[in-house]
């Protein structure tokens, strides 16, 4: 297993020289990592128009084990099915998050059992904890006093946001029973009313702003 990190990666984090870009995580295991293809472009457009970001309009795709992940402050992951991280993938993701990166996983329905298993490889000494509605991520530009909004019904459960922290910094976010990504998609994909889509996009903008400022 590789125990080193390229010098350019260390210098990148040392200088906090992140570009304003978002990437989609491609993972192994057979799950549809490519789901919701219009969601990230729409979120990026919304953020650039409403919270003064200058994010590149076309999100990149990065693999879990690649050093390319260190170029992006915010990586998004979604899907319905199986997830698998090799030991190198897990080590790379751990270094990425502990060095200042942020991973958001949005359950597109059915990913939770696989994700929780693989997270044990990434952070064997950390636990997913529910994030309270008082956390800053729900109160950035847009206020969500009750926490994570409900966008789509899955199993008729309440929406929950789970996280992993490094000291006081939230480094990993898992949005469950919510499906923000469906709400970010083009209107004709799910025929969601504007009110629902706006809730999803505003919550997404809160996440982006939190990541870019912490």
From TrEMBL:
Which part of the chain is the DUF4159 domain? 22-212
Task: Please tell me whether the keyword GTP-binding is annotated for this protein.
Answer: no
Q: Where is the signal peptide?
A: 1-19
| Keyword annotations of the record | Signal
From which residue to which does any coiled coil extend? none
Keyword Iron appears in the UniProt entry: no
Name of the protein in its database record? DUF4159 domain-containing protein
Specify the taxonomic lineage: Bacteria, Pseudomonadati, Bacteroidota, Flavobacteriia, Flavobacteriales
